[in-house]
Amino acid sequence: MKLGIDVGSTTVKLVLLNAQDEILYQKYERHMSSVFDKVRDLLIQMQQEMGEMDVQVVITGSGGLALADKIGAKFEQEVITCSLAVQKLIPETDVVIELGGEDAKITYFGASVEQRMNGTCAGGTGAFIDQMAILLNTDGDGLNEAAKDYAVIYPIAARCGVFAKTDIQPLINEGAPIENLAASIFQAVVNQTISGLACGRRITGKVAFLGGPLTYLSELRKRFIETLQLAPEDVIFPDNSKYFVAMGAAFMAEGQQMVGLSELIAKVETVDPLADSVTKRVEPLFADEAEYREFCERHARAKIARRDLQSCTGPLFLGIDAGSTTTKAALIDQNEKLVFSFYRNNEGNPLEATKQLLTELYEQLPAACYIANTTVTGYGEGLIKAGFNADYGIIETMAHYKAAEEFLPGVDFILDIGGQDMKCMRIKDGAIYHIMLNEACSSGCGSFIETYAKSVNMPVEEFARVGLLAQHPVDLGTRCTVFMNSMVKQAQKEGASIGDIAAGLSYSVIKNALYKVIKLRNPEEAGDKIVVQGGTFLNESVLRAIERVLGKEVVRPDIAGLMGAYGCALHSKANWSDGHVSDILPLERVRVFHAGSSNARCRGCENQCMLTITRFNDGERFVTGNRCEHGAGKENKSKDLPNLYAYKLKRLFGYRPLAESAAPRGHVALPRVLNLYEDYPFWFTFFSKLGYRVVLSPMSTKELYEKGMDTISSDTACYPAKLVHGHIKTLVEMGEKWIFYPCINYEQLETKDAQNHYNCPIVATYPEVIANNMNEIFTEYGVEFTHPFVPYDKDERLIPRLYEILKHKGIEKREIKEAVLAARAEQQAFKRDVEAEGERAIAYAREHHKKAIVLSGRPYHLDTEINHGIDKMITSYDMVVLSEDAVCHMGKLPRPIRVLDQWSYHSRLYRAADYVCQRDGVELVQLNSFGCGVDAVTTDQVEEILERSNKLYTLLKIDEGNNLGAVRIRIRSLAAAMEERDKNGIKAVHNLKPYTRAYFTKEMRKDYTLLIPQMSPIHFQYLEVALKACGYNAVVIPTVDKHAIDEGLKYVNNDACYPTLVTLGKMISTLKSGEYDLNKTALVMSQTGGGCRASNYIALLRKALKDLHMEQVPVVSFNMAGLESNPGFKITPAMGKRLLLAVMYGDLFQRLLYATRPYEEVPGAAEGIMKKYEAEIFENCRDGRFSTYKRLVQEIVRDYDTMPLRRIKKPRVGVVGEILVKYHPDANNNIVDIIEKEGGEAVVLDLIDFFLYGMYSKKFNYENLSGTYQQYKLNQAAIALVEQFRRPLRKALRQSRRFEEPSYIQKTAEEASEIASIGNQCGEGWLLTGEMIELIKDGATNIACLQPFACLPNHVTGKGMMKAIRERYPKANIVAIDYDPGASNVNQLNRIKLMMATAHKNLREESAEGDEIA
Hints:
Elements (H helix, E strand, L loop, with lengths): L1 E6 L3 E7 L5 E8 L4 H16 L3 E7 L3 H8 L2 E2 L2 H12 L5 E5 L4 E5 L5 E4 L8 H10 L4 H8 L13 H13 L4 H21 L8 E4 L1 H5 L1 H10 L7 E2 L7 H9 L5 E3 H9 L19 H12 L13 E9 L3 E7 L5 E8 L4 H15 L4 E9 L3 H8 L3 E2 L2 H12 L5 E5 L4 E7 L2 E7 L7 H11 L4 H9 L12 H13 L4 H20 L12 E4 L6 H11 L12 H12 L12 H5 L3 E7 L8 E7 L4 E4 L19 H9 L14 E4 L5 H14 L3 E4 L5 H7 L10 H15 L4 E3 L20 H13 L1 H7 L2 E3 L8 H12 L6 H35 L3 E6 L7 H4 L2 H7 L2 E5 H4 L16 H14 L4 E8 L5 H14 L4 E6 L6 H19 L20 H4 L1 E4 L4 H13 L3 E4 L5 H10 L6 H15 L8 E6 L10 H11 L7 E4 L14 H24 L8 H8 L1 H10 L2 H17 ...
Parallel strand pairs: 1-4, 4-5, 6-9, 9-10, 12-15, 15-16, 17-20, 24-25, 26-27, 28-29, 28-30, 30-31, 32-33, 32-34, 34-35, 36-37, 36-38, 38-39
Antiparallel strand pairs: 1-2, 2-3, 4-11, 6-7, 7-8, 12-13, 13-14, 17-18, 18-19, 21-22, 22-23
Helix pairs in contact: 1-11, 3-10, 4-6, 4-7, 4-16, 5-7, 6-7, 7-9, 15-21, 17-19, 17-20, 18-19, 19-20, 23-30, 24-30, 25-26, 26-27, 29-30, 34-35, 38-42, 38-44, 39-40, 42-44, 42-45, 42-49, 45-49, 48-49, 50-51
């Protein structure tokens, strides 16, 4: 008998087959997080029904790995088992779409099997559907039934469950029908699966649907079928589709050792789930029961004054907080005593909850009392105010502040965590001076705990209790809640108890709030008087967690969940005039109250908002979903207010193209995307002058985005980048035959004293992604797609370059020159017009006493589908909207600033912030697209500039989700804070000075320790010795620990990439260890000066040092680009020579060790050789003798060449990617060890190639861009010097029997040029593409491409090139692996195992083919 066990993230499946592969037994049950128990129960059930027997077992599934390891059974990767089942049972299949609890997979069948599975994110999977169903108070089946009757599909972000929740919750609160919500959730899953996994490969042919969600949810299948436009005969929905993975495992069990069923059950029963756990643990919340009792007694003292409602007479004051998931109310008397309260879950219907509240209140209200005033706040404020006639509506931040101030006069710091929102207020001078609300990405706080509790069938109160005394709380990280979800699942699979998870979640919610949202650097910043409130703090585990993390006692009012409602009640009393009776509906009207909703689309402007219209039984209506007054049928008060966004959009795209008759050269099409929002005047004028009719793609819409989503290569790219695909597809469908979309590394130099003028890596090079992922569409429609790199920053170089590109169209150089000069003049005119309009808008605001907001972002934030109409929302609050480029010319920013000012568009942000600092009545709001890596650097700098001048800073994180509930709160809070500050006479203080850094002086060289972060252990042991030989006391910081990453998260902007957090966290951890005298220590960091954010690590580190009060520690920039200098540190020729020798030794050992260790006959022999030469190499790195180096290289290669090896063949796996993640074992979770453990040989190419890549790029820059001849020649000489050092190494490797010499950089560039331009120079740039091709050609067809989560350059030259590589090399087996502090190790391991399983399969097939040929 063959038994397949599939342990998924939410379910366990068993399938028993006989020798003829017939199913004898099958079972499918949810494991409710108790994985081992559920497997045991199912095995016992099978034994009871089928009797005792011997079975061959294979375990599979995302949760099966730990189980298989612990009971000694064979584990097989789930995509492999599923593929086998498909090939056996439904061989006609072309594509399989399989959804599981937390996994989504697409498998393409054909000449070779290509498999994709989701990465770090569980958005758009079964768990996501479960979360959404719980939110709607139903289950998956309920959603499915509801979706059958939908009328409208709302755009819901499926990028992740958190964003979707942010979109859905307000729709629920607005009364949207469940039928529409259910269908919209399913559509979101479809969009996430296609855009996240198709990665540029279209889903065509016969498509099979597998897995639990697709088995049970017919409407989900229907949404897939409609979206993919599949004909009925192309849809395969097999019987037993949910068992396919388990059946595949059973098929593979043939040949496994037989085991008795009783023995198998006994093995499962005796497993210790905590043994060998990879899940990290944190300290318990309480040491013992006594500590818990003391905690309870202390918090029991924080009570509000109460009074019995029945004893009241006269006026009472009502406050209602219509929150995102609950409705709360507080009723107070004239002495502010609480006489009645109400707290209930909305169950998806806030109107019904409020009706219940009022009915309950009226039924208890004594005849001698009356409701004198009613104030509403919260998400549902507008709806409740309109439906029930409340007197006032106030912004929730003010409601919470009023309540906290009443409770604890002089409060410094208020943290409110609700169902879906997190608010933090810092109070200064009796007014809120800093408001932080969670961005869409880190929400889900309270409701995440509630959702999780429901998923394990436990009331929230009980769930909170079980965590209090848990002994091994799980460390769940501080990334977004979906990542947390992955880690919770991993911990469950390893047997963590519900209590451990409950306690771990409490810690995570608090760390998320403090580190990610509030960005607290140390507990002192929270002040001394801290009030915590919101329903989440009624959970004692969460309350204890904040005290643990802050190291301070906090005050939680006993009405923590009612504070918003209590603040509203106080507002009702404060605004009451004697004798006034509230307009709130009386009891008889409340009893008959009901409402219905419908949908319509507003046609008032280009946003075309989807409106939800709620009609009340009295004939009144309430409209939501509109971003301004148009859709609500109100008079548009704001239409006369200056709005630079509206002006710029009109001015930018207001050009009239040539008539067909006046365009002798025909059409040229331009996509309305990214930097075209800046440079369109230039390109329109340029092509019009040449006699072309310029055709522009239409304005962005959700529908346009969905058109191109199956060609998106990286699911974590920002929304503005993803939209490009839809624009290009639309131009093709419009019949355009020539699309021009250039790559532009540098904008024109605008800020004279900035260090550089790059575009961000996505803006600069995204046309490369389009060329390689939409090529089939271009071929199919006969479209020419021109996407050259051009030197846009220098017209004298641009003219010959454009002539070279366009001369084949019969255009003369003279025409190009005239067109470029006219285009540049028009571009400058556009810029001047925007500045003049900005000055007019400022004058208007001054004359009419209006507040103004500088809505700062990138040029493409003008796109209404990207900004979601936030500009119109701001004008609807009677404030003028300015843009950063309309005011930055008036900023006089003292320089240098802390960051390396390297990006053109961002330089404007800093100058605009300085302008705001000079003006009262003007504040800055920064737009930040989710996934924008560059803003990890810019947001902190903008905030610093503003805070130094006592200004407010508001950051709005935007993505494809277009529900603006949270944005509206922030804008209203900002407006309220501005008013409050005016009342209190708080003024801007322009207090900016140039940034001064600590220098490393000549005197320091003698007795300072230079700490160097580890990057590649093999290389850096030699580099440390080389630096010491040059007179520096250099110390390489030892390997990273988990604590170091926590330090990184605490002191570095959490949107920074993983290498930043690892490197800077380790440095901070080392400085805090007390091991080094801070007055005798300096830090060293490398800087390349490239367009990626790595050159700003130094700036982020200096900010962290300031926050730690360690500014005296100098940070030394190790760079060859002339970025920063320090009198005490110089890169001399002698140092250069020693460092080069060190890198050569490192590269040599890396090459030889990885090529021999998997095959060594004597374990440890390969590392033994490295150890044998250690002393001699250290000495050579000290003396720098070339003759010694030549001799040692020969001897080392000879030793490895003669080392006894086993005669076996293993799949070779290339490891490529971002430099730190590629070389540092701690940053890549020891991927080389994993590859070797999985039976492979890792191939990691030389570190020196990264430097050669930078040098070689200067040739392309001189020939095609704005590079100088001097730079080109200097770098050619540097390459020649490196090659001189490499010569002995090359010779030794060439003469060996076993090893290959490294490729020349010219050859790598040639390989890369097959697919990617050498203009790709951000991060690893074209080197990454070139290395992948080189490895494949050298026989390492299996590649692990590693990148930090949301790494910008890798979107282009890593993930963006994979489709093109696979097309050219069908055997290429490439897997992209994202690294992030919140990424689950099991997910990474699963992806590596998938690649290794395919690698072994391919190797077996090759060997079989070889045998046949022989």
